[in-house]
Write a structure and sequence with these properties.
By secondary structure, the protein is mostly beta strands. The chain has helices at residues 2-6, 29-39, 59-74, 98-107, and strands spanning 10-13, 46-49, 80-81, 91-92, 95-96, 115-117, 126-132, 138-144, 150-152, 162-169, 172-181, 187-189, 193-199, 213-216, 222-226, 240-245, 251-256, 265-271, 277-286, 292-302, 315-318, 325-330, 335-342, 347-352, 357-361, 368-376, 380-387. The chain is 11% helix and 40% strand.
Length: 388
């Protein structure tokens, strides 16, 4: 009704899309369809969740509520979330239960007026929601739906570097874990947990995220382009760019240029002949007022001629190097999970082992060195392999 539509600014819903709650299913198609529908016409509306309910029996219910909140925010762009009943959802015998605390991971640190920041995850069971609050604080909520711990690494332009961490698990109630610095490397997100990261302030200086760089061990001199450098107002006046290298022996030379007036610079490096490994490079931008911003990335120097494996192993991986897929022959069926990650800890694949022979599709993985981990109740095996 066109006349009624003109007077309606909010669209409130009761049910919600549960597709993303299940393991390995990160989409929330129902929420996205609702959002698209209320944006149609001449009077787009805010989408509100005003009545929902998940009864509390155990921590799985609490995690489902957290994932449902995430889905409504991430896929439904909702502006408000509240549930139908507090007493039997967030309370048990008049005391806060785990649903209270998984809800707190959102509600306590995402404040009225916050603006959502787009987030994506490379690992389907690790889902994230991020917000910038009106007081300048920045909040990232990370949910790990799987039973396996997963390393997480935040990637994006001009993100805050230091965060307070608050974690809820079956045995922890929004526990204060202290500070996390992004430049310290990946942070472990336990299986079936909700972890909130809160940055209370961030630098005005800007420098774009630099992707990890993978090169052959005998590749010669390489150049990394650095962009987006400014004082936050579009100028490069009085800015200085330096770097730190945590593995200096990997390179015969490495240096950073001066900052161009256009806000660009270059890092030039040459790997030592015959050596391979990886190094964390931390770019450090500063001005004459002692303001700073750091950006870290990895240089991975590989050996595409093969891969080092244990002398005796019950795991065979081929072909080496790999391109489209990799085959894993497991002689010991005590392993039950396969995880593929890069040398920085970022997880790209995780799957269960159901037979002694497994083929994994890797055609979307960038060239480089990867770690393949097999784990079981009392066993663990790690191998390296190359994607060419």
């Amino acid at each position: 009704n066109a006349k009624a539509d003109a007077y309606c600014d909010y669209f409130a819903v009761h049910g919600y899309d549960n597709t993303g709650v299940t393991s390995g299913f990160p989409t929330f198609a129902g929420w996205t369809a609702l959002w698209d529908e209320v944006q149609a016409g001449n009077n787009p509306k805010e989408l509100w969740m005003t009545e929902t309910h998940v009864g509390y029996t155990n921590f799985d219910n609490a995690l489902s509520v957290a994932v449902a909140i995430h889905g409504s925010l991430w896929a439904g762009n909702i502006s408000l979330w509240t549930n139908w009943s507090f007493g039997d959802m967030q309370m048990t015998n008049n005391s806060p239960n785990s649903t209270f605390y998984t809800t707190k991971n959102f509600a306590r640190y995402i404040r009225p007026g916050a603006v959502r920041v787009t987030t994506e995850s490379d690992y389907s069971d690790l889902i994230t929601t991020a917000f910038e609050n009106t007081d300048g604080s920045f909040t990232i909520v990370v949910i790990n739906k799987s039973t396996q711990s997963a390393p997480a690494r935040f990637i994006g332009n001009n993100l805050p570097v230091e965060y307070k961490m608050y974690r809820t698990t079956k045995f922890e109630n929004c526990l204060d874990l202290g500070l996390y610095n992004m430049n310290d490397g990946p942070v472990a997100i336990p299986g079936k947990s909700v972890v909130t990261f809160v940055a209370e302030e961030t630098s005005n200086l800007t420098i774009d995220y630099v992707p990890d760089v993978t090169v052959d061990k005998n590749s010669g001199e390489k150049v990394v382009n650095i962009t987006g450098i400014s004082n936050g107002a579009g100028s490069t006046d009085n800015l200085t760019l330096t770097f730190e290298n945590d593995n200096p022996g990997l390179f015969s030379s490495i240096s950073v240029s001066a900052i161009d007036p256009a806000g660009t610079a270059t890092l030039t490096f040459t790997p030592n002949a015959g050596m391979w490994g990886y190094s964390k490079i931390t770019l450090k931008l500063s001005d004459d007022q002692s303001n700073t911003r750091d950006v870290s990335f990895y240089i991975i120097v590989g050996d595409i001629s093969g891969v080092i494996e244990p002398e005796k192993s019950d795991v065979i991986i081929y072909p080496v190097p790999a391109q489209e897929s990799i085959n894993i022959l497991v002689e010991d069926i005590d392993y039950n999970t396969i995880t593929i990650s890069d040398l920085t800890g970022r997880v790209f694949r995780q799957t269960n082992i159901s037979s002694s022979f497994v083929t994994l599709d890797i055609n979307d993985l960038p060239s480089g060195i990867y770690l393949l981990e097999l784990s079981g109740k009392n066993k663990r095996h790690i191998s390296k392999f190359i994607v060419q």
